[in-house]
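Sat 14:20. Reprocessing the chain from the morning session after the first attempt stalled halfway. Input below, unchanged.
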Amino acid sequence: MPFKSVVDFAEFLWGDTISEAQIALLRVLYGLPLSSAERSLWRKYAETPIFARYKPQAYAEALCLLGRQSGKSSRIGVTVSLFEALCVEREIPAGSRLAILFFSPTLKQSTFDQVGEKLRSVPEFAELIEADADGEIRLRNQIDLVSYSANPRTARGRTAVLAVVDEAGFIRTDSSFEMNLPELLESVRPSLIVHRGKLLLLSSPSGKEGPLFETWEKRGENPDVLVWRAPSQAMNPAIDEKLLQRERKRGESYFRREYLAEFVEATNPFLPEAAIAASVQRGTPEFPPDSNDFQTFGAVDTADKRDSNALAIAAVRDFSGTRKVVVLKTKEWKPGPTGHNVLKILDEMGEIFRSYRVGRARGDQKNMSVCESTFARFGVRFERVITAGAGSESAYRAFLALLNDGKLVLPDDENLLSQLRRLEERTGDGNRFLVQGRRNSKDDVAVATVTAVALAAEHLNARAPVIESIFADSGGTGEPDDKFFVRRDRLASFARPRV
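Finished this time. C-alpha cells:
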C-alpha cells in the first residue's frame, strides 16, 4: 500500500485521534527523524542520559511500558501489526506463508481482536482477507495473523515477521508453569531471525522482578532494544482527569502501576529493593573459588516432583579490611516429566561443593539421610535445619541484617535476584513468622541462598576464644584466687539484626 512511513499509515488509520507521544514512539521504533518536540519526548520516555543524542535506528525489539488506556494495544499494537502485514514489501516464495504472532495471558486478548476489527472495517483492507477463522486471519499476500495463548510450546514452528506479546508483565515468570514469559521469549525469538522480524512487548509494569523489569533496569546496556515507559495521560491526553482521580482512590500502589507506568514493590516484600540493588556485583553471574576465602559453606533445598532442587554456596571474604558474606554460586535443577533423579542431582551437588572446598552444608529434612551419606563422600558434613516457618526466622533475619548493613555481596544472577524480590513476609497462624515466595511462584534458590548465607554469617566475625579469670591475681603468684573461668567470645554483628 502506498504509505511512505509508519507515521503516514498511523495517521490514515486514526486521523487526529493519535497523540504526539504515540507518533513519537512509532518514529523512534522505525528509526525516523524527530522534531525538537519529539526529541524531548524521546529523552523523557526512553529515559536516556541527559546529553544523549538521538541516532535514528530501526529496532528489532521494543518494550513499551505504558499505563492503562494509553493506546498501547490500539495506536501502537494495531498500527505496527497492520503496517508490517500490509505495507512492508517482502519476497515470499510461492507456497510459503509468513506469520504475525500474537500472544497474551488469555486467548481473548486486546491487540489481535482490535487488529481483526480494523481489517474488517476498512474496505481496502477487507478485500485482502482470504480466510477469517477463530484466532487466525489469512491474508492474500501470504501473511497470516495468528493468536496464541502464552504457552512456549505453541510459539514454535512458525516463521514470523512480527511477534506481539500483549500484557507481557502479567504472564507468569515462573518456569514451573506452562505459560511463562522467559521460555515464551526463548521460543519466539528464533522464529523472527530469518526475515529480521520485530518483537513488540506491550504491557503496563508489574512488580520489580522478571524479564520486563530487568530489561527496563538495564536499558542503557543494550542499545538494540527500545524501552519506552510513559504514563497513561502522557500517551493519551484525552483521558478524563476525573477518571484518573477516581482510580487513584483505589490505592496509590495500584494507581502508580496501572496509570503512571511505575514498577512497584511486592505487596509485602521481605527484602528492600534498594538494598538488593546495592548488593549486586553487576556483570558477575557467579564468583569462582578463591583460596583466600576464610571459609566456604553450602546449602541445598531438595524437592520431590514439581518443585526444583537448588544449591547455594556462600563464603566469608575480606573487602579492604571489611569482612562480608559473598554468595558465590547458585544452581537450580528443574523437574522433568517424571520428576527428579535425586541421586544423580545429589552427586552433582557434591561435585560442585568439592570444587568450592565446601566443608559444611545445610538443608531441610527432606532426603536428609541420603544427603548425609552422599555429601560425606565429597568431604561435606551435612546438617539438618528448618528452612520454613517460625524455625527459619533467625536465618532470614540474619540475611536481612547483612543486606541492610552492606555486608552481603550477591552475584548478578537473574534467577536468584528474581526469587529474592518475590519473597514476602506474611502472618501465619498465631502471628508466627513466615517468609515465602509470592503466590504461584518459586523460591527454591532463594531458600538455599538464605540458608547458606545464614551459615556463613555465623562465622563472619569468628575469633579464637579468649579465656580469662574474672578475679585478680593473688600475691603475685600468677594464679587466680578462684578457679572459676569465663569464656569471652565476640558476638556476631547480626545477633541483633536491624529490620
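The two ends are 62 Å apart (CA to CA).
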